[in-house]
Design brief:
Blueprint lengths: L5 H24 L1 E6 L4 E6 L4 E6 L7 H31 L5 H7 L5
Antiparallel strand pairs: 1-2, 2-3
Helix pairs in contact: 1-2, 2-3
Length: about 110
Protein backbone atom coordinates (compact mmCIF):
# COMPACT_ATOMS: atom_id res chain seq x y z
CA UNK A 1 0.00 0.00 0.00
CA UNK A 2 1.31 3.40 -0.93
CA UNK A 3 0.93 6.60 0.99
CA UNK A 4 -2.26 8.55 0.41
CA UNK A 5 -1.97 11.28 -2.17
CA UNK A 6 -1.61 14.56 -0.27
CA UNK A 7 -3.25 16.51 -3.08
CA UNK A 8 -6.33 14.27 -2.99
CA UNK A 9 -6.52 14.58 0.79
CA UNK A 10 -6.37 18.37 0.56
CA UNK A 11 -9.16 18.36 -2.03
CA UNK A 12 -11.31 16.20 0.26
CA UNK A 13 -10.68 18.53 3.18
CA UNK A 14 -11.57 21.54 1.05
CA UNK A 15 -14.78 19.83 -0.14
CA UNK A 16 -15.72 18.99 3.44
CA UNK A 17 -15.17 22.62 4.45
CA UNK A 18 -17.35 23.81 1.59
CA UNK A 19 -20.09 21.37 2.57
CA UNK A 20 -20.00 22.58 6.16
CA UNK A 21 -20.25 26.19 4.97
CA UNK A 22 -23.27 25.18 2.92
CA UNK A 23 -24.78 23.59 6.04
CA UNK A 24 -24.15 26.80 8.01
CA UNK A 25 -25.97 28.75 5.29
CA UNK A 26 -28.86 26.27 5.30
CA UNK A 27 -29.19 26.50 9.07
CA UNK A 28 -29.62 30.27 8.77
CA UNK A 29 -32.69 29.64 6.59
CA UNK A 30 -34.32 26.86 8.62
CA UNK A 31 -37.08 27.75 11.07
CA UNK A 32 -38.34 25.49 13.84
CA UNK A 33 -41.47 26.10 15.87
CA UNK A 34 -42.46 25.28 19.41
CA UNK A 35 -45.52 25.85 21.51
CA UNK A 36 -46.91 25.18 24.95
CA UNK A 37 -50.15 25.53 26.83
CA UNK A 38 -52.14 24.19 23.92
CA UNK A 39 -50.88 26.96 21.66
CA UNK A 40 -51.17 29.81 24.17
CA UNK A 41 -47.44 30.45 23.70
CA UNK A 42 -45.77 29.97 20.31
CA UNK A 43 -42.16 30.58 19.35
CA UNK A 44 -40.01 30.27 16.25
CA UNK A 45 -36.24 29.79 16.24
CA UNK A 46 -33.69 29.64 13.46
CA UNK A 47 -31.65 26.58 12.62
CA UNK A 48 -28.82 28.34 14.42
CA UNK A 49 -31.03 28.43 17.52
CA UNK A 50 -31.77 32.15 17.60
CA UNK A 51 -35.21 33.19 18.81
CA UNK A 52 -37.07 34.73 15.86
CA UNK A 53 -40.57 35.27 17.22
CA UNK A 54 -42.63 34.92 20.36
CA UNK A 55 -46.43 35.04 20.52
CA UNK A 56 -48.32 35.00 23.81
CA UNK A 57 -52.11 34.74 23.92
CA UNK A 58 -53.28 37.99 25.57
CA UNK A 59 -55.81 36.06 27.66
CA UNK A 60 -53.06 34.59 29.85
CA UNK A 61 -51.12 37.80 30.45
CA UNK A 62 -52.56 38.31 33.94
CA UNK A 63 -50.78 35.18 35.25
CA UNK A 64 -47.08 36.07 35.04
CA UNK A 65 -45.83 32.82 36.57
CA UNK A 66 -47.79 30.70 34.11
CA UNK A 67 -46.61 32.87 31.19
CA UNK A 68 -42.99 32.44 32.26
CA UNK A 69 -43.37 28.66 32.53
CA UNK A 70 -45.10 28.43 29.16
CA UNK A 71 -42.49 30.62 27.44
CA UNK A 72 -39.68 28.46 28.79
CA UNK A 73 -41.43 25.28 27.68
CA UNK A 74 -42.19 26.64 24.20
CA UNK A 75 -38.66 27.95 23.66
CA UNK A 76 -37.13 24.65 24.77
CA UNK A 77 -39.52 22.79 22.47
CA UNK A 78 -38.48 24.94 19.51
CA UNK A 79 -34.77 24.66 20.35
CA UNK A 80 -35.06 20.86 20.43
CA UNK A 81 -36.78 20.94 17.03
CA UNK A 82 -34.07 23.27 15.71
CA UNK A 83 -31.30 20.95 16.91
CA UNK A 84 -33.02 18.01 15.21
CA UNK A 85 -33.22 19.96 11.94
CA UNK A 86 -29.55 20.90 12.24
CA UNK A 87 -28.55 17.27 12.80
CA UNK A 88 -30.58 16.26 9.77
CA UNK A 89 -28.87 18.87 7.56
CA UNK A 90 -25.41 17.92 8.81
CA UNK A 91 -26.12 14.22 8.25
CA UNK A 92 -27.21 14.94 4.68
CA UNK A 93 -24.09 16.99 3.99
CA UNK A 94 -21.71 14.53 5.65
CA UNK A 95 -23.15 11.45 4.03
CA UNK A 96 -22.66 9.48 7.25
CA UNK A 97 -18.94 10.21 7.41
CA UNK A 98 -19.10 12.29 10.60
CA UNK A 99 -21.18 12.43 13.75
CA UNK A 100 -23.61 15.39 13.55
CA UNK A 101 -23.59 15.78 17.34
CA UNK A 102 -19.84 16.49 17.25
CA UNK A 103 -20.35 19.17 14.60
CA UNK A 104 -23.20 20.77 16.55
CA UNK A 105 -21.03 20.94 19.66
CA UNK A 106 -18.29 22.65 17.65
CA UNK A 107 -20.88 25.14 16.38
CA UNK A 108 -22.12 25.68 19.97
CA UNK A 109 -25.53 24.30 18.99
CA UNK A 110 -25.44 20.92 20.68
CA UNK A 111 -26.27 19.92 24.20
Amino acid sequence: MGMPNLGDMMKQIQKAGEKMQDVQNQLEKLVAHGESGGGMVKVSVSGKQKLLSLRIDPEIMDDAEMVQDLVIAAVNNALDASAALAQEEISKAAGGMINPADILKNMNLGK
